[in-house]
From TrEMBL:
<keyword id="KW-0472">Membrane</keyword>
<feature type="transmembrane region" description="Helical">
    <location>
        <begin position="65"/>
        <end position="82"/>
    </location>
</feature>
<protein>
    <recommendedName>
        <fullName>DUF805 domain-containing protein</fullName>
    </recommendedName>
</protein>
<feature type="transmembrane region" description="Helical">
    <location>
        <begin position="28"/>
        <end position="45"/>
    </location>
</feature>
<dbReference type="Pfam" id="PF05656">
    <property type="entry name" value="DUF805"/>
</dbReference>
<feature type="transmembrane region" description="Helical">
    <location>
        <begin position="94"/>
        <end position="110"/>
    </location>
</feature>
<keyword id="KW-1133">Transmembrane helix</keyword>
<dbReference type="InterPro" id="IPR008523">
    <property type="entry name" value="DUF805"/>
</dbReference>
<feature type="transmembrane region" description="Helical">
    <location>
        <begin position="130"/>
        <end position="149"/>
    </location>
</feature>
<keyword id="KW-0812">Transmembrane</keyword>
């Protein structure tokens, strides 16, 4: 017998390209928490990148490559899962588009860290612009988590 958490995680992949269905709260949170746990384990196991100095470039280790491949692989399914969650809550799809526009910047930042150091990124876009972008990314992730935590339909 399959547990609800397993069903919810399988639905993450089953509906990976579907934005028209609805997702219950557990269908959002179980995959989200599973991915956070997976990424955390990979980061902690990647001793070479765990011990680099702040601002340095990531070292292209096998674990770093797995982390990046999984991040890219789950980007669209994570967006569609959030979209389905908003459908369940009766919230406008425009919110998902805006939030994931900023979340895309977060993915590009992590990808860029594999090519250059944090300092080089800041030098290219400017420290002030970098801080603004980092703040927008943080706010967008926070808004996503708050919206996904809602348990009933809300009107916006």
């Amino acid at each position: 017998m399959m547990t609800n958490a397993c069903k919810d995680y399988l639905n993450f992949w089953r509906y990976a390209l579907n934005t028209t269905e609805e997702a219950k709260r557990s269908e959002y949170w179980f995959p989200t928490l599973a991915h956070i746990a997976f990424f955390t384990v990979l980061m902690l196991a990647d001793k070479e990148n765990l011990e680099i100095e702040p601002g340095e470039q990531f070292i292209p280790t096998p674990l770093n490559r797995i982390y990046m491949a999984f991040a890219v692989l789950t980007f669209i399914p994570t967006y569609t899962m959030f979209q389905r969650r908003l459908n369940h809550l009766g919230i406008s799809k425009s919110i998902a588009h805006v939030i994931y526009a900023f979340n895309s910047l977060g993915y590009m930042w992590v990808l860029a860290l594999n090519k250059m150091s944090q300092r080089e990124i800041e030098d290219k876009i400017g420290r002030k612009n970098f801080m603004i972008l980092a703040s927008l990314i943080g706010v967008s992730y926070t808004v996503e988590l708050i919206l996904a935590a809602k348990s009933e339909r809300i009107e916006i």
